[in-house]
């Protein structure tokens, strides 16, 4: 549906993985998981606001209401007629994604590209109903993926016209939800694949590490039946305030392991939190060097502390009061409507086994928002089933880039589909690592991956310009 | 977006072409144009109603409201695993389209295909708000092409599941709006192309015929300044009731010439009205055989009478009171929202010259419905600009079938785009003539055209089943 002539989706999937709360999986608690003390980075972009249509698929009088959609532009390297590189924003502030997608800035000079980072509706400053945007299903109803895609298309088209460069090719970049794990829906990939992949990351580093984490949940569970358990746990976990439930401690640990697997980058980085290079290895080092008489829970806590306090800035942990500093809380609504990705923990995973009960999930959504999920809608709208047979005939010019450290990779396309639908898979890659600015410490495989991507983009652009010349 | 694996669009465009009313073009007065005395035909289909979601792109509580979408099914020839042939309904009662699309019934046995004719929302019985559906923009707002496409996709997916035949290939057939003239929007084809094409049809038969019609408007215009003109005109035009304006007579003539060009079929047929084979030729015969002293207007009237009274069932004409017997009145709303197809009459056309003023058009829509058209939305959503360059990479398995007698063909794709995006163009073809049941009188080119279509469909199905076997 995009008006562009090339589209390129990077599937280094990021998104907010999750933990079971009250024994029920809430897949993307996001809102509570992202705490950052860092001030907003200075970015080489100008901020604009586009008058965007509220409802592209309806013509009721209120559908035509306009809201201000934020977008960031860099024209430093652009020449008229040269490509537009568009980042289609996902579930958070656009600056946060721009700051973590230095790849586009790195390659813009080579292509003389214009860079555009477009914020997704209902995130950051792009609030259709201002501070009332999250008030109820009546306002949140307009937060859907198809409306967001239409926003992008309308904005890109208008931008090209304003630039008097309507024939410029457009290369679209998306990561995580913005370049969605399209096979994670319905019953396409096994529901246990996500947590199995997290577990595999830890097992690959150290079997002991995996077993300690796997054993820690029973210890935590046993504590919950003891008197004074919460006080003891609060002390052991160095919480700022006394814990009200052991489930919070479980969720806190769970989150640390899942997000660390996702961002198991080969260099020091600060995406969700500041972390050292290969943080899974570092966590397992912490676990493995403990004397064997130490409890598994204390070792799991020490490992999780790496995630929450690598910068050593925390004197205590706000386990039950994390702050949403990246503006992610809309994701919870999206999982209750379109983004239904069932997940389970198998016995082989390092997490406590749990299943997925659709009825209970739907009841929670009904309770929270008064909304019923449409669990088959995403695959009806965007496909996914028999993707190889379908896409090889109906698509082209897509890179599916996945790093196998990232548990979301299991919902990605991992094999080439055609000569122009290409899967780039890196064993050591993590959640959209290729989107990050290059650094001197980048390993060879990462340098090579980005080089491949640049080569493919260059080839497609050459084809596009050749097409244009020959009509 | 369709969940299918093959899609096939026939672009034998039908839709309700138009005349300027009060000097402003209202492109699809449809509602007043279709009068049929014929009773509903008996069709070999079972009628079903699908509980359809009102708003696929919103999750406000009322979006989840269901309405009953009508569809017709024929399972006489079907075998499990065999294809589904789906006709995506357009702006009228689905029975009417089913009755005029005998091609599907003709070819079903060969393919062991299941036939499904799906009614478009807000037409026929598929009224989301019952008799209040057309009450205002608040209800009509849900009448959009993308909602209709989503309806089709959801229904097809559900149907395949209910048939336990999810891997069945789906071949989609659409005519006219249901297989839209995608280049008719924005500034892709010249705005004068439609009426130039109508004029060309008449000119090709007889230059005199073209010139008589071209000259008749001035005679009509001159009458409107005379005393007693309306009474005289009412008599000359054999109206049942006295005319209230000469514009009605002009629109009535205009409609006859436009629709006759569209349905200039090689055999006797009854789509809009009962008509003889090659009705444009017949009209010109009537005009040419008049003595030259007869006024041009009287000759134009005699020709138009062929369109309105070929069956000789009319004793007088209801020029200002045509009945909408095919349920077409929603089209007017669609042209005021998404389906903005600017049209003009050039000096070379046989119609009085007129331009297109977007501001005036928008003002009329605002007055009628309180709605503002979004004139660039269709091309943003579905593309159209630089279609060759785009579709050759991003699409496949489409037949664009156009008959050059049909003025809508000028907004169609008339050249092959790739080995699987094929343009079938017939010089003597008219508005989706290939969709009609075969008859003994069919000329060779029509027999050959359908044969080509069947061959292409067969090839694609073979490819699909081969893909399925080899994963």
Give your account of this protein's structure.
Two copies of one chain form a homodimer. With 471 residues, chain A is α/β, with parallel strands linked by helices. In chain A, 37% of the residues lie in helices and 11% in strands. Chain A has 15 helices and eleven strands. Chain A has helices spanning 94-99, 102-111, 137-140, 145-162, 193-205, 207-223, 229-236, 246-262, 279-289, 296-309, 331-335, 358-369, 377-382, 387-394, 444-469; strands at residues 19-21, 24-26, 46-53, 66-74, 84-88, 114-118, 170-173, 269-270, 274-275, 398-403, 421-426. Chain A has a five-stranded mixed beta sheet. A two-stranded antiparallel sheet of chain A has the order 1-2. Chain A has a two-stranded antiparallel sheet with strand order 8-9. In chain A, helix 5 (193-205) crosses helix 8 (246-262), helix 6 (207-223) packs across helix 9 and helix 9 (279-289) packs antiparallel against helix 10. The radius of gyration of chain A is 22 Å and the shape is globular. The first copy, chain A, starts with 18 loop residues before the first strand and ends with a helix. In chain A, 53% of the residues are buried. At the A-B interface, helix 3, helix 4, helix 13, helix 14 and helix 15 of A face helix 3, helix 4, helix 13, helix 14 and helix 15 of B.
Enumerate how many helices of chain A there are, as a single number: 15
The most extensive interface between chains reads: A-B, 57 and 57 residues
What proportion of the residues of chain A is helical, as a percent range?
A: 25-40%
Ends distance of chain A = 22 Å
Oligomer: homodimer
Radius of gyration of chain A: 22 Å
CA-based shape of chain A: globular
Main pleated-sheet profile of chain A: 5 strands, mixed
Count of β-strands of chain A: 11
